[in-house]
């Protein structure tokens, strides 16, 4: 993710103009009537905490359940950070033990997708599975190095599971979304901890793949992961496609996000916007093409923004040229600047200049 | 015991009949404004920004959208354990049940609500003005002068003063006299319909005047207080304040928002205006779109050309369509190859393709020229206009129209075509 994740946890990355990555998973959970959600976080979580400051945006402000943000804490017998995904769950095992819901959905916050978890659960029950893993068939040319790949038999039972393969044996990847019985999860996590093992994928999925019934559930609709800068750029650009926009923005159910109370976007004389997404609170005075402009950005006179992503609250001075870039949020770009990502490379722009106007 | 220093009572029951078909189905305070707001957002946001966290909203006329919009007050942070926002409709009593018959009568019928907060001061607001005002500063003025009633006033050009209630004050801003729409105004200080009362004064005056039919603040309560020789003061406000009671002033106020640096600036960090946002996605501007001097709300898709316009949320404007000098409210859909000139289009309107609105010679409106004028075409909410229709200036359309409702696919300037709902 290069410089972008220096500033915030990946699941707090702004996506598609008006959202943050975690909104997709949280909205899916809310829309699936899951009422109790815990977010496990430790890395650079200020942005994320700010975003999750109220549970009402996703309708989690309930008496039954609610939204819980669980960060590592110092206790009498433990002062470790989360040493892995399984350890993160282990350190919050009391939360799981005190719950009464029979099933648990475990999902990463960096997936961009829509999913009815009830369908996933029905499938899980129907297959009599111990763990069900959401999977996606990737196109032949996709780079799978970052993912875990799975191989399923005809019944969709997972026979092989390989984490971050150098030479992938299958084009089907794990999306990092799992469902299992709560008691089963507690049992496995406790066993893991006894053996000083900390990783959910390596120490549970891969280790138990022959002993437990682990099934794959294929997602056929849009799914994307933003965990690398290139994927992040591509995912945002996907929202310029009418079918993707229609799927996420126009089809029920909606994706929810924190409401920012920004005024409508404003287009002054000289603005020329082509094939772009513009978010609320923006003021546009220049040319914008094939780009995604996040909330509250100011684009000065005679600017040209092409094929770029401008994150929240960026000020771009007059006569600036930006092409093939991701401009970090709250940047201030001086007038007459030029930033171009060359040779197919996406340039990440981080400019902390003084801002005088507005 | 619960104690609030000042609570607000917001009069939102009015129909606003001078907005014509725009208020056929909604109360005026719920009419959309400025791309994503509703008129009531301005006084509600002023309240919370001024530290007034207890607001009673008095509703009566067509309250559905208003009620849905306000809900429990979350967008304005008015969901409170103690206080917050309460919607107060007229209610049945064991004897003498009645509608709200006047502004002060509505407040009178809710004395118990106010009493329950044990306030020192009550702020009376109306839900039909666009402005940003710190009511706390007005309260300081009220206290400093030892006033029993303070009326917010606004200096207006003297030639326009005869359209307003005019306050005549001495050098200390104490009100010595007042005139309702005077022919020869003696002052240019117009009442803005914003009052701060000492709670005891308000309660006593309302009870004393209770039998007055159509009890009104401007007509009855203020004159009563004046007769009793109470200290009434005029608080002069010099910021932006706009009455959007007529279609042309409503159009004008919207258009002022698209100036480079508008006098009424929604983009300031200070004094935010809050509203309920149902739609969150960004807006999409297509390859062949042109947007200049306009503001556009969330989730709108623009395929055509938009000039000098205010576009709401979730609006679609089709390919090769040209929109000029118009206001398009939330969720309206406009087909391809249309032309819109100076149109005010309410919410959820569906316009086909090849439709031209606001073309041809100007002509006076046949049914209500005092409402529909200035060349504006007004389209009521949920109206349908089929393909290929041409509509003139000062025309009105309301309801699901079909080609059969038009002669040769035309509606001439000044014509009124109302198919559904209550007529105006």
Task: List the defining traits of the structure above.
heterodimer, A: 358 residues, alpha/beta, Spore Coat Polysaccharide Biosynthesis Protein SpsA, Chain A, UDP N-Acetylglucosamine Acyltransferase, domain 1, five-stranded parallel sheet, 27 strands, B: 424 residues, nine-stranded mixed sheet, seven-stranded parallel sheet, 8 helices, globular
Describe the structure.
The complex is a heterodimer of chains A (358) and B (424). Chain A is α/β, with parallel strands linked by helices and 358 residues long. In chain A, strand 8 and strand 9 form a beta hairpin. Chain A is globular. In chain B, the strands form six sheets. In chain B, strands 1, 4, 5, 6, 8, 9, 10, 11 and 12 form a nine-stranded mixed beta sheet that branches. A seven-stranded parallel beta sheet of chain B has the order 15-18-21-24-27-30-32, with no helix packed on it. A seven-stranded parallel beta sheet of chain B has the order 16-19-22-25-28-31-33. At the A-B interface, helix 10, strand 13, strand 14, strand 15 and strand 18 of A face strand 14, strand 15, strand 16 and strand 19 of B. Strand 13 of chain A pairs antiparallel with strand 16 of chain B.
Largest sheet of chain B: 9 strands, mixed
Radius of gyration of chain B: 23 Å
Helix coverage percent of residues of chain A?
10-25%
What's the CATH architecture name of the largest domain in chain A?
Alpha-Beta Complex
Number of helices of chain A: 10
- General form of chain B: globular
Number of strands of chain A: 27
H/I helix tally of chain B: 8
- Termini separation of chain B comes to 48 Å
| Total beta-strand segments of chain B | 33
* Count of structural domains of chain A: 2
Query: Overall pLDDT of chain B, averaged?
Result: 94
Coarse morphology of chain A:
globular
């Amino acid at each position: 993710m290069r410089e972008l994740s220096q500033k915030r946890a990946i699941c707090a990355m702004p996506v598609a103009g008006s959202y943050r990555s975690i909104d997709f998973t949280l909205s899916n959970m809310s829309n699936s009537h899951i009422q109790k959600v815990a977010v496990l976080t430790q890395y650079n979580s200020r942005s994320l905490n700010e975003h999750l400051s109220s549970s009402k945006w996703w309708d989690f402000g309930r008496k039954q359940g609610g939204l819980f943000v669980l960060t590592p804490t110092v206790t009498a017998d433990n002062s470790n950070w989360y040493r892995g995904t399984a350890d993160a769950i282990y350190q919050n095992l009391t939360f799981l033990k005190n719950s009464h819901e029979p099933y648990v959905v475990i999902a990463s916050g960096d997936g961009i997708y829509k999913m009815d978890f009830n369908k996933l659960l029905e499938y899980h029950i129907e297959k009599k599975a111990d763990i069900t893993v959401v999977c996606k068939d990737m196109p032949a040319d996709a780079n799978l190095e970052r993912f875990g790949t799975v191989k399923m038999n005809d019944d969709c039972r997972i026979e092989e599971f390989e984490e971050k393969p150098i030479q992938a044996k299958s084009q089907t990847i794990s999306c990092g979304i799992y469902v299992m019985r709560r008691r089963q999860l507690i049992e496995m996590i406790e066993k893991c901890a006894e053996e000083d093992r900390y990783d959910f994928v390596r120490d549970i999925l891969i280790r138990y793949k022959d002993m437990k019934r682990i099934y794959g559930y294929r997602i056929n609709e849009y799914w994307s992961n933003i965990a690398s800068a290139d994927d992040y750029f591509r995912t945002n650009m996907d929202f310029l496609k009418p079918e993707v926009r229609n799927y996420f923005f126009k089809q029920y159910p909606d994706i929810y996000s924190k409401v920012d109370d920004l005024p409508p976007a404003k287009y002054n004389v000289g603005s020329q916007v082509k094939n772009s997404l513009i978010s609320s609170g923006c003021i546009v005075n220049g040319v914008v093409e094939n780009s995604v402009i996040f909330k509250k950005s100011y684009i000065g006179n005679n600017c040209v923004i092409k094929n770029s992503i401008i994150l929240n609250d960026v000020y771009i001075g007059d006569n600036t040229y930006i092409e093939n870039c991701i401009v970090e949020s709250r940047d201030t770009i001086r007038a007459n600047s030029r930033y171009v990502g060359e040779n197919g490379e996406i340039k990440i722009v981080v400019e902390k200049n003084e801002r005088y106007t507005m | 015991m619960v104690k609030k220093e000042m609570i607000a009572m917001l009069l939102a029951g009015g129909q606003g009949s001078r907005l014509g078909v725009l208020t056929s189905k909604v109360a005026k305070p719920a009419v959309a404004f400025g791309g994503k707001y509703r008129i009531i957002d301005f006084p509600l946001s002023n309240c919370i920004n001024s530290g007034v966290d207890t607001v009673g909203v008095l509703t009566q006329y067509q309250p559905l959208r208003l009620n849905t919009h306000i809900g429990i007050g979350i967008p304005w942070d008015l969901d409170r354990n103690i206080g917050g926002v309460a919607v107060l409709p007229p209610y049945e009593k064991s004897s003498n049940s009645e509608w709200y018959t006047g502004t002060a009568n509505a407040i009178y019928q809710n004395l118990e609500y106010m009493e329950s907060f044990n306030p020192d001061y009550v702020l009376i607001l109306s839900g039909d003005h666009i402005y940003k005002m710190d009511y706390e500063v007005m309260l300081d003025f009220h206290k400093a002068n030892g006033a029993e009633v303070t009326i917010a006033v606004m200096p207006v050009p003297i030639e326009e003063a005869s359209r307003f209630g005019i306050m005549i004050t001495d050098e200390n801003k104490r009100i010595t006299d007042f005139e309702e729409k005077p022919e020869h105004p003696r002052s240019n200080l117009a009442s803005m319909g914003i009052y701060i009362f000492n709670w005891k004064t308000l309660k006593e005056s309302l009870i004393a005047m209770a039998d007055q039919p159509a009890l009104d603040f401007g007509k009855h309560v203020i004159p009563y207080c004046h007769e009793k020789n109470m200290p009434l003061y005029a608080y002069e406000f010099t910021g932006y304040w706009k009455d959007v009671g007529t279609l042309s002033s409503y159009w004008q106020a919207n258009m002022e928002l698209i100036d480079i640096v508008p006098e009424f600036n929604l983009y300031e960090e200070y004094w935010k205006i809050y509203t309920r946002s149902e739609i969150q996605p960004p807006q999409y501007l297509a390859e062949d779109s042109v947007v200049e001097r306009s503001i556009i709300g969330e989730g709108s898709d623009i395929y055509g050309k938009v000039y000098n316009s205010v576009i709401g949320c979730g609006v679609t404007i089709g390919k090769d369509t040209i929109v000029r000098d118009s206001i398009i409210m939330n969720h309206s859909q406009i087909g391809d190859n249309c032309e819109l000139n100076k149109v005010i289009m309410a919410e959820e309107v569906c316009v086909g393709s090849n439709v031209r609105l606001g073309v041809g010679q100007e002509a006076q409106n046949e049914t209500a020229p005092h409402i529909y004028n200035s060349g504006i075409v007004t389209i009521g909410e949920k109206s349908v206009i089929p393909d290929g229709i041409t509509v003139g200036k000062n025309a009105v359309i309301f309801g699901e129209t079909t080609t059969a409702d038009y002669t040769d696919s035309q509606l001439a300037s000044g014509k009124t075509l109302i198919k559904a709902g209550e007529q105006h």
